[in-house]
Amino acid sequence: MLLNINDIELIDRIIADPNHISILYERHHKDFSQQLSSKFRDINLHAIQDIVTESILDLLEKIPYLQFEVGKDNKSLENYLFVMCRNKLYNESKKATEIQYEENNKSISYLYHKHEEDTNNNLQFEKWKQSLEVLKQRGGKCYSLIVLSTSKIYKYKISDLTRLFNYANDATTRTRKFNCLQSLKSILTEL
């Protein structure tokens, strides 16, 4: 079974076919999310799950450049991924604290707008960013689904998302993506 292959084989398979990153997702997503939620209580579980998903995708880009020797000195892909997740969560927690501090001092605009060149575009961008944050805070898979399918960095295909999120088929993934985009639109109109 593919879930039981060792790290070296898994790295080779991911380099040959990036879709094998789903093995890491299946192995670690649930466990890491639960472990990290007990350490980062100020971040909700759904946000932690999104960050674990993002870390797995970040690892996909880093795998060809990993410099450590897997299996020596207790270094493993699992440990490396866990540290990535933990560091992202630490930064997210720190950022949330800074934003809360700035909100309390009524100077949050400093964090988001250092240069006000085009007010209209900035306002549209801010609404989009705020609506994504609201969607992220609501939890679920919508945030990850939208980011992975629309981001210029990831641009995942429907078939890749179906495998990654373990949906029944591509039609289900399209429906979920459509529903998530509708939710995002409704949040945008509320703002």
Summary?
The protein contains 9 helices and no strands.
Could you describe the 3D structure shown?
- The structure is a single chain.
- By secondary structure, the chain is an all-alpha fold.
- It is built from 9 helices and no strands.
- It has helices at residues 7-16, 21-39, 45-62, 77-104, 108-112, 119-138, 142-150, 158-164, 170-190.
- Helix 3 crosses helix 4 (77-104) and helix 8 (158-164) crosses helix 9 (170-190).
Question: Overall 3D geometry?
Answer: globular
Helical fraction: over 70%
Radius of gyration: 18 Å
pLDDT averaged residue by residue:
76
Strand content: under 5%
Q: How far from one another are the termini?
A: 48 Å
| DSSP E strands, number | 0
- State the helix count: 9
Structural class: mainly alpha
Give the secondary structure arrangement, pairings included.
Blueprint: H1 7-16, H2 21-39, H3 45-62, H4 77-104, H5 108-112, H6 119-138, H7 142-150, H8 158-164, H9 170-190
Helix pairs in contact: 2-3, 2-4, 3-4, 6-9, 7-9, 8-9
Give me some keywords for this one:
globular; 191 residues; mainly alpha
